[in-house]
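Help needed: design a sequence for this.
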């Protein structure tokens, strides 16, 4: 930290355990200057206060590629706030790079070929072999040079203020997360399409799997996949033979968990009707015969703007934002700016075109 404090810009990346472990933790932190790279082991150094103080300095620019997750886990597990972010993925989107992955950008601008063989590695294991350490160091050692290139492109295209607005929102995001009170089993993709009786089974098999995953400190999908849980709910097995024929249930899983899975399924089937869980339905809006026409006009206007400015559609206005504009019918720029989630640069550069489309 004493060495890094002298810098004005550093690159940062993290490796976490969430892909392999039930208990998410930050397993490695990579930090680079323009000439050196440091690897920090947060499993060995429990108090990261000195790093937190460094990253919180307003004058310290921290370059991260696809910063959202890194910022969230540093905040969640270590209370660290990164005050001044430069996200190379966001910058690449704003200058309309066709490929925004780090490997593609480093290949294009720095002639580097990045091997992704450790992308899904278990970073919680110790000791970490040298080839994994080299791989981790490579994630940040060229990031500042990429930042320099992308910043010049942003300035040249007149979009640097756009980037500053997006970066500021990233900084605040981990500390403004809405509380999610929805049951975890209902957050599974496909769960909300199930009937209440099926949800009762899903709740039981999900709780069983969660307990097993926690006890073994393994990622839940490694115990049994989500698609299998959904199939158990929609087509409940009546016997071990039925379970053995189920796609995604191998012989080892059947031997270790078969009886307990069937027990969980039966427990779900035994839930009284008045105790069946119910998924919250999407908000229903009052009938508006012109809404669809307005939304089509807004999308058509966006298509013109994306072509004219050579931008991704989401940079001009994401579909959800267009839907909100079509419903709320803002009458001027101030009303448009009051819509949650809209950016100032979107109002300034595209707002009049969208308002006219209404």
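Sure. Designed sequence:
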């Amino acid at each position: 930290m004493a060495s890094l404090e002298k810098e004005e810009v550093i690159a940062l990346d993290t490796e976490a355990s969430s892909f392999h472990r039930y208990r998410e933790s930050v397993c490695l932190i990579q930090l680079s200057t323009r000439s050196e790279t440091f690897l920090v082991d947060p499993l060995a150094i429990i108090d990261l206060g000195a790093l937190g103080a460094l990253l919180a300095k307003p004058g310290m620019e921290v370059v991260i590629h696809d910063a959202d997750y890194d910022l969230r886990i540093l905040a969640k597990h270590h209370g660290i706030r990164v005050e001044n972010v430069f996200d190379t993925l966001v910058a690449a989107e704003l200058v309309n790079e066709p490929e925004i992955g780090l490997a593609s950008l480093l290949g294009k601008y720095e002639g580097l070929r990045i091997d992704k063989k450790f992308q899904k590695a278990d970073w919680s294991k110790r000791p970490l072999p040298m080839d994994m350490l080299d791989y981790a160091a490579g994630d940040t050692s060229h990031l500042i040079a990429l930042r320099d290139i992308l910043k010049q492109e942003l300035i040249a295209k007149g979009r640097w203020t756009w980037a500053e607005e997006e970066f500021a929102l990233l900084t605040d995001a981990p500390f403004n997360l809405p509380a999610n009170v929805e049951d975890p089993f209902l957050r599974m993709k496909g769960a909300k399409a199930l009937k209440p009786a099926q949800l009762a089974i899903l709740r039981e098999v999900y709780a069983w799997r969660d307990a097993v995953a926690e006890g073994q400190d393994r990622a839940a999908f490694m115990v049994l996949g989500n698609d299998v849980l959904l199939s158990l709910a929609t087509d409940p097995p009546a016997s071990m033979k039925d379970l053995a024929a189920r796609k995604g249930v191998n012989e080892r899983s059947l031997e270790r968990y078969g009886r307990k899975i069937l027990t969980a399924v039966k427990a779900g089937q035994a839930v009284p009707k008045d105790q069946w869980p119910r998924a919250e339905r999407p908000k229903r809006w009052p009938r508006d015969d012109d809404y669809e026409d307005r939304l089509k006009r807004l999308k058509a206007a966006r298509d013109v703007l994306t072509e004219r400015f050579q931008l991704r559609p989401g940079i001009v206005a994401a579909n959800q934002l267009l839907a909100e504009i079509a419903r709320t019918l803002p009458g001027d720029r101030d009303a448009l700016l009051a819509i949650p989630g809209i950016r100032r640069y979107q109002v300034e550069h595209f707002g009049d075109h969208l308002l006219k489309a209404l």
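The beta strands are 9-16, 26-32, 37-40, 61-64, 85-87.
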